[in-house]
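Let us practice reading a record.
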Amino acid sequence: MRKLKNNELDRLSVDSFKLAKKTPVIIILDNIRSLNNIGSVFRTSDAFLIEKIYLCGITAKPPHKDIHKTALGSTDTVDWEYADNTMTVIEKLKLENVKICSIEQAENATMLNNFSPEEHTTYALVFGNEVKGVSQDIVSKSDYVIEIPQYGTKHSLNISVSCGVVLWDVFSKLSFLK
């Protein structure tokens, strides 16, 4: 096997990315503190053609050198919007028939491996603060609470890692629906 060179990867241009059919997934970042985590979410969202990212509350917004360091230009490809209040975004998306999915550990949560996204449905995945997680009022308003199964001692993943795990899982399940 030979490693591929960057010019062999058949990457989309920024313009082609903007025109490409998007995965029917929206990311909502609920009060994320780390700029590196924010940048990483942008980069992962670019990889899976995510529709949009909402940056809410204390979540920083581009342009910022620490976001750029991990985003590697994906703040120019993935659509994003800032909102002071996460609940306002949730209520707006619910009116648009978007299914709200908090990624959290909660009573009666659906394990990620058991989550089956439906065809012709857009999902908003809410990722919460590094310490406090997704706020309870958002969890209570969610259509689903999805938990990533974990078997070690910590039962805690970095938000950017959680985002990667969940996006890959949902993307792969939706890809099979096509």
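A brief commentary: The chain has a mean pLDDT of 96.
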